[in-house]
Amino acid sequence: MRNFRLRAVVSYFFTKQVNLKQFKMKTAIKILVLLVVSACTYPGLLAQNAKTITVFGTAEKVVEPDEVCLSLTLQEYSNDSGTKMVISQLETELTNAMKSAGIPAGNILVENINGYGNYGGYEAPEFMISKMYQVRLPNLDAAGKLLAKMGQGLVNANVVNFNSSKSKSMMSELKAEAMQNAKEEAEALLKLAGKKLGDIVNIEVVQDYSAAYGYDAYAPFYGPIPAGSAGKVSVKPITLRYNLKVAYAIQ
């Protein structure tokens, strides 16, 4: 009899503990679900209640480049006497040509190197090395002087890009101009709606790769093609552009 009562008491307390654990678990799950629903709903409510206006601000400037990046390729070859002109000799010719043209040696960088086996004709096969370099020059006149002093080892030359040494300072000015343009656009739109502009809510930098690089594309916006100096060929301009997307609060 006593054993029966003891088992009953133990069973009662065990059942209570299990029910209490189940209650706590259900309560915790309900709280977790409520928090998740609140977290998902709250941003939507904020977006519905927030009064903002989003506009784009753009600023650009067309400038004449004062830096030229020239790509050169030197190729080993055999001269008329059958002597092989190795790449080290060709590099010496290049550095001497740069010195004669007044171009610092630090303005040249090796971009790539490759080679091929020469199996043509009846001569013994030779492995010919070629190197590609990038040279920074102040203008096209310097490029012309450099190329005129190069020998037979130069097999390829082309302009990689044009740049302006003042591009960094100009971009700082364009950032401020783009912000001002965005503000003026937002103020103009809100004035039509009878509202006032508030504080900035968000700023996003927009990448834009659609800048035109041909003179013809500039004509409607920047006037006719500028005439070059007498006896001098003009270099195509480059466009510096900065774009922003700005969100303002509406008062």
Structure characterization notes:
The protein is α+β, with helices and mostly antiparallel strands and 251 residues long. Helices cover 42% and strands 32% of the residues. β3 and β4 form a beta hairpin. The longest helix is centred in the N-terminal third of the chain and has 48 residues.
Brief synopsis:
The chain has 251 residues and is α+β, with helices and mostly antiparallel strands. It has helices at 2-49, 87-100, 140-148, 167-192, 215-222, and strands at residues 52-63, 67-75, 77-78, 84-85, 108-118, 126-137, 154-163, 197-206, 238-250.
Element layout with pairings:
Elements: H1 2-49, E1 52-63, E2 67-75, E3 77-78, E4 84-85, H2 87-100, E5 108-118, E6 126-137, H3 140-148, E7 154-163, H4 167-192, E8 197-206, H5 215-222, E9 238-250
Assess the beta-strand content as a share of residues.
Answer: 25-35%
Q: Tally the helices.
A: 5
Largest sheet: 4 strands, antiparallel
Shape: elongated
- Into which percent range does the helicity of residues fall? 40-55%
Global mean pLDDT: 75
Total beta strand runs: 9
Give me the secondary-structure category: alpha+beta
* Helix and strand sequence: HEEEEHEEHEHEHE
As residue ranges, the low-confidence spans are 41-48, 211-225
Strand order of the largest sheet: 5-6-2-7
Give me the Rg, rounded: 36 Å
Q: End-to-end distance, in Å?
A: 82 Å
Q: Which structural traits does this protein have?
A:
alpha+beta; elongated; four-stranded antiparallel β-sheet; single chain; 5 helices
